[in-house]
Design brief:
flat
Length: 94
């Protein structure tokens, strides 16, 4: 893929940025380097390498859920500045 002024202008518009001429020139070089690196990765021989979503042989690392007693709700709610008997009442943040 060729990095040209049209592509840089398109990316500038998509990202809602205003780049100087020097920044555009540097970005074009950086993008060309990135695409070159990706092309080299495509040349790596991966025959016989199994596909993986993770580089390690990790099996289910989650623990089993064990039901355990919780703290007493009434005891916890006694410390709340505002509560309705079942939960804390906090100011809306959004």
């Amino acid at each position: 893929m060729q990095i040209d002024e049209n592509l840089i202008a398109y990316l500038e518009e998509l990202s809602c940025l205003q780049l100087s001429a020097d920044e555009k020139q540097r970005l074009a070089g950086d993008l060309q380097d990135i695409l070159g690196s990706m092309a080299r990765l495509g040349q790596v021989n991966t025959d016989g390498v199994p596909e993986r979503s993770h580089p390690f042989d990790v099996v289910n690392a989650f623990r089993d859920d064990d039901v355990q007693p919780s703290l007493d709700r009434a005891l916890i709610l006694r410390n709340a500045p505002q509560q309705d008997g079942e939960m804390f009442i906090a100011p809306q943040t959004v």
